[in-house]
Structure formats: C-alpha cells, structure tokens
Amino acid sequence: MNDTIEGDVARYATAVRDAFADLPAPERELLLEDLEDHLAEVAAEGEGPLEARLGAPEAYAAELRASAGLPAPGAGGPGRAPSLRESRVARRLRRSWRAAVAHPAGGAIVGFLPELRPAWRVLRGYLAVQAVAVAGSPLFSGGGLSFPVPALFESQLLGLLATAVAVVLSVRRGRGGAGRRALTILGNTALGLFGLALALQLGSDEAAGDYYRPDQVVYAGPVSGLRSDGQEISNIFAFDTDGRPLRDVYLVDQDGDPVVATHYDNEYLEPRLPLDGDGNEVPNRYPQTQYELDPAGQRQPGPTPDFRPPPGPVRSP
Amino acid sequence: MDTTQLLKGVLDLAVLAVVAERDGYGYDVVRRLRAAGLEEVGDASVYGTLRRLYAGGHLTSYVVPSEEGPHRKYYAVNEAGRAQLAASTGTWRSFTDAMDKLLGTHGEEAA
After folding, report:
1. pTM of the model
2. How many other C-beta atoms are found inside a 10 Å radius of the C-beta of residue A43?
3. CB distance A37–B70 less than 8 Å?
4. What is the pLDDT of residues A22-72, one digit of tens each?
5. Where are the domains of chain A?
6. Residues A243 and A312: beta-carbon distance below 8 Å
7. Which of B15, B43, B59 has the most A C-beta neighbours within 10 Å, making it the best mutation to test the interface with A?
8. What is the pLDDT of residue A291?
9. Chain B residues in contact with A26 (beta carbon < 8 A)
10. Which chain A residues are within 8 Å of B72, Cβ to Cβ?
C-alpha cells in the first residue's frame, strides 16, 4: 500500500517536473524542491490516486506556473513541454547559425567547406579501413589500434592495400553524385564520428573512456552517494567551533541510516575504510583516510583541508 | 461569478494572512484556506504562491522533522511579508468598500 502511494507520488511529480523542462535548473529547483513532500502530504490525506484528486499533472503544472508568476512555456500550450524543434536550445542554435553565416568570416568558412570534399573522400576511405581494423580488436583495451597504418589481420601491408582500394572507391563514389543520399549521410556521419573518436583516443590516452559531460547526463531516479552542487563528495571533514578538526565522527541521515560518501574509481584518491569488530567496513566514519599519489607515484596521506569557523558566538535559528 | 477568477487576485493576501496567523506547511495552508471558506482554492496555486512569496523574500522557511511521513517545510511571515500583508489589507478594504457602495442592496434582492 505504502509502496503504491510512493510510486504514485513519484510518477505524478515526474510528470509535473517534465512540464517545467524549459526553465533553467536553479529556477526550477527553487520552485519544485518541495513538490514531492507536498504531494506526499496530499496523498497521505485521502483516498485514491493523485490524478483523480488533483487533476492531470499537466493541468497542475499549468496552475502552479501561473500562480508562481511564470510565463506559459514558449509557443506550446500551457504546461506542455516544448518539442525539440521549438525548444529554447534549438531556437538559439538556429539563431547562432544564421548569425554565423551572415558574418563575413562565417560565410567564408561555410563557402569554403565544399573545397574540402576531395580531402574528406580520401580521409573517408582511410577511416573505413581503420574502422574495420579496430572492430577486429577492441579499441580501448589497447593494442588494437595500429596508427597511422591500419593493420588488417595483423598485417600492415594488407591494411595499406585495403586503404588504397577504399580511397579509390570513396573518391569514385563521391564523383558519381547523389546515389542513395540517406545511406551516404549515415555512412559519412558514422565515419566522421569514428574519426573524432580516433583523434580523441590518439590525443589523450589516459583520459580516454572517462569523458564526463554534465550537459548530457540524464537524471534517472535517485543518485547514490553524496553530492554538493552536482559534484561528488568523497570525504567529509568536521571541525569544532575553534576550527580544530574532529576525528572519528559518525554521520547518519534523518532516518539514522549511515551517510556514505561517493566512492568512485580515482587512482589519485583512495579511500581506506576502517573495519568494525566483525571485519566489515564502516562506511560513515569521517574523515576517512585517503591516500593521494604524489608525482613519483608514491602514496601519501591526503591533507586535511583548512577551515576557519565564523566569528562566534554562532546563534541557532 | 467564477470564484477561481476572483481568487487569482487575492491568493497572495489570503496565503499571507493564513501564514501570519500561524506558521504552516504547504498542505496545511491549503487546508486552512479551505476551512476558512475558500473551498475552490487549488492545491497547485497555493504551492506556487508559497514558493513565489518565499522566493520574493516575504516568507522564511524551516524544516520540522516528522516521525511518520515526510519532513515538513514550515513557512513563516517575516518583516517584508508583514508589511506586504498590511499594505494589501488596506487595498482590499478600500476595494471592498467601493464595491459594496457600488452594489448597494442588489445582492440582497437577488438572495
């Protein structure tokens, strides 16, 4: 029973939040941070699903938007999430593109692009062979990439021959004009992306496979670990009123459950959890001992950060 | 006449009055508004109004842990909110006085 109420609240809240997708995140959070708690109060009060008592989430969102003094979203109807073509980002992109083409330098670059076609056709042939070669053995496990000459069946000679054939075919196909346009675009895009991946892999070996793109992270359900302003927290330091660091502090949340910092694989920061009497790790005793690797690759204990408490006495609200 | 249209203009005032009387959390404010006779007040409107008054600096908030169910964010009126409430109350009184004079005894005949 409890579970269905929680699910109902979560579903309803998600649908309401979707209708505010056009707002910048801080504004949205300021408006919606208590939504789940508030809906839980409503749900606890009476019987039946929220939708039957509060109306459709879209209508709820529209009413909320109006009472909060916000304009209706874009060209769409009230409470409706804008479509991709109508979205703020798409409009901004189109505007930037028009401005870029209108600018003399931008126009020159756009006008110059067709000149690059022959070069792209050669590169395309090469990338196709390299893609086949790499597909044979995984790129990111290392050892699979032979550069600059691709290796087919572990033979660079074979790779060279295949490249020559592929480049000739690619150039002929390019001159042949529009055949199956959709297929060509698809192939070009795939090979272009592969080329980009190849360049990135060659550019920074140690960073490969570790790209964090906050703007592409889609929030899906609760995120484990501790975060502050979106940044993962791997350790917590407590200080007393005189600024002295406290040792061996146990942290729990409002339910008494341990507050566990985020442990991510970071070779520079290695947490060492203390063990309890049964040999189990104690995850919520802070600060945790952490080691950092110095430039020579030796483990050194991580430093305690500085903290100066505000001038006392500090009053409680 | 549609009460919801009337409510739109005065919900700020009603919410401020309820919270000034006694601190309250979101759903509590909804309930007290309805108990006071504003039965058609929308849940989302109250929530949105509370958040706007809070963002506008007319309300402060504090969290009270609850033993069962979610913790509750209580709202309280601060100095700016009290000043707003006093000013809006003055506006409301002169408005209703004017409307009363204008309508005279029409309402009573209809009723």
Report:
1. 0.43
2. 22
3. yes
4. 888 888 888 898 898 889 888 887 788 888 889 999 999 999 988 888 877
5. 2-88, 114-203, 224-317
6. no
7. B43
8. 66
9. none
10. 37, 41
Q: Are A124 and A191 in contact (CB under 8 A)?
A: yes
Fold of B3-110: Arc Repressor Mutant, subunit A (1.10.10)
The domain ranges of chain B are 3-110
Contacts of A65 in chain B (CB under 8 A): 48
Residues of B in contact with A60 (CB under 8 A): 43-44
Cis bond leading into A287, ω under 30°? yes
Average pLDDT for chain A:
75
Please indicate if any CB of chain B lies within 8 Å of the CB of A253. no
B34 has a chain A CB within 8 A of its CB: no
CA distances from A148 to A127, A168, A202, B23 (A): 11, 18, 10, 71
Residue of chain B whose Cα is closest to the Cα of A53: B43
CB A281 within 8 A of CB A275: yes
Closest CA to A148 of A178, A126, A124: A126
Residue type, A138: P
Closest C-alpha to B47, from A316, A211, A31:
A31
Strand partners, A286: A249
Residue of chain B whose Cα is closest to the Cα of A44: B69
Mean pLDDT lowest for which of A90-104, A138-152, A300-314? A138-152
Lowest average pLDDT, out of A56-60, A107-111, A276-280, B106-110, goes to B106-110
**Structure confidence by residue, pLDDT tens digits, B53-80:** 998 999 999 988 877 766 788 999 999 9
Looking at residue A83, its pLDDT comes to 57
Question: Lowest-pLDDT range, A71-80, A159-168, B33-42, B83-92?
Answer: A71-80
Q: Which of A56-65, A120-129, B5-14 has the highest mean pLDDT?
A: A56-65
Q: How far apart are CA A284 and CA A248, in angstroms?
A: 9
SS3 A196: helix
ipTM > 0.85, yes or no: no
The tokens describing A238, both together, are 């407590």
Helices then strands (H, E): number in chain B? 5, 3
Distance of CA A76 to the CA centre of its chain: 27
User: pLDDT value at position B51?
Assistant: 92
Torsion of CA A197, A203, A208, A212, to 10 degrees: -80
Interface of A with B in 222-251 (CB under 8 A): none
> Measured between alpha carbons, how far is A124 from A186 in angstroms, rounded to an integer?
13
